[in-house]
Amino acid sequence: MFVKLAIPRPIEKLFDYAYDESTLGAIEVGDLVRVPFGRGSLNAVVLERSTEPPALPTGIKLKAVAARLDPDFKMPFEILNLCRFASEYYQYPIGEAFFAALPPKLETLLASRKKKESVFDHSRILKLTEKQNEVFQQFIQKRKEQADSVFLLEGITGSGKTEVYIEAARKILAEGKSVLILVPEIALTAQLKDRFEAGLHRSVALFHSALSDGLRQVQWRQARAGEIQVVIGARSAIFAPLQNLGLIVVDEEHDPTYKQEERFRYQARDLALYRAKQAKIPVILGSATPSMETLLRVREGRAVHLELKERFSRKPLPQIHLVSLTEEPLVGEGTLKTPIAESVARVMQQTLDRDEQILVFLNRRGFSQFILCQSCGWVKKCDRCSISMTFYQKRNELKCHVCGLRARLPSECENCHGNELFGMGSGTESLEEDLKLILNGAKILRLDRDQITSQKRLEETLLDFRELKANILIGTQMLVKGHDFPRVTCVVVLSTDALLKWPDFRASERAIQTLIQVSGRAGRADLAGNVYLQGYDLEHPVIKIINGEAPLETFIEEELAQRKMLFYPPFSRFVRFRVEDEDEQKAKNFVNRLGGEARRFVGPDFEERVMGPSEALLFRAQNRYRFDLYFKSPSTDLLYKLSRRLKALSVEAQVDLIIDVDPYQS
Question: Quick one: which of 49, 183, 386, 403 has the most CB atoms within 10 Å?
Fold first, then answer.
């Protein structure tokens, strides 16, 4: 017998092997096998089988499959199909796409510690509000009319979207089907697991990369065997092999972290839509700030719009306060690293005095953003990247946030040899020190990637804050993600301007989403909430929307109209071709060649949609120079054809080409 295999290597083609059915048994499509490859051996996925030998060049002998792996790891047809689609759409080697969907170390069955069985209080019955029930009934009715309906559940922060998810899941489970819930961050999985288990009175499995290898193996096999009916997970859970899937929920569907930014650059929300369509089941996209892509689906009649316009607690949304740093005096001006208005410090102290909690959002890590020589203006940059190094005072070192390079703090300027070196700009580390200086009784926790070094540390930090062991939580984007802290009544955004100036066509959309989401952390229970947006440019259109001075609907209409006129998503398939090489001139010459080839290939009708080439926003990273070429494709088919053409040229020229379909980062 003969098989075609997908190999986990950056190679586009399938590989032919022979196998002895009398020794290995009947190998089927989806099975995992161990095969010799090069000088070693590796695992592979069977994609085709045949009794006819493949045509081989003269003198080439077909290698044989060495072993068949545990049949419990066989990939279901649904996941095979999903990986095939993802590999083609995101232009990623097919073998590596399959193994991104599988648990690790498949050649060895790993042990997993037995977990305690959860005990459920069956007397607790979820009761929906009138509005929630109205939305749920709309879901039921539309699902009867069209089994694979797409729903946008748009609910303001704190409106109780999770309760609707639970009720929908209960309905699906009663029909003997399974449910998949995606969340944007691993941090949210444990919190949501508790709520779903309490609401459904059954165990819920977590799927994400922070689990132990053994547990990931066990749960993959259990899901494939139908022993798990409910999975909550982050991005990679879209590949969970649930049997008889009946519903997919994508919570916070707008969140950019659903897009994988390295290696296999897939978008989990979009794969959820594809998987649901293939399985002919409904998908619920939930958000307080829906993406433009989802809003366009609603406007074009491809999604059903469900709305929750009031909070579950029936309390009003938090009040927004604008604090101009050009008009208001600063606390201890010249003594603090972080600019904090006196009025904001006063409100924070009053909040602490009432035994309430505060969230402070600052989307910058470290103690100082860069080290500057005040004599000559020299800035300490990374030796391998075109970016300044961030100073960390506690470790007394500099760190590059791109490649991770660490360096000692220099004793003198490398340019003029002067010693007037100063840290400029603030980050979460310096903010923590500043708040301890100006606030009495401040007990502070930090939520950023420097402080949160493991899943356990993350869960402990969130639990400590929820249990009131601290009264201030400061952090970066990790703060924005759907956390529910009942005692938080004050949210402070310290550098609002930084959200508005990013050079990206999605900048305004993202700023609105971030500000609405972080504001929604305040006043979610019985206590009223207040949000303080501190910055220098508070006349920006986005701020007017957040403050209620301009309607969000008008912004959405204008944004969609502008993107349509300029052929930006969601009115095109956007792809970035990034050329990287250690030789700057080689990379530049090749990307210029690609630019010319792209314009010739797409022809006069679409050549204006080719943008660039240009230097990447981060021009040098890890000693590699980067140039970008973008294409706003009118169709998936043209995107595929151009991608294959440019990829073939890069292989021929032996220059690295990274293809990123639907990129979210510049």
Answer: 183
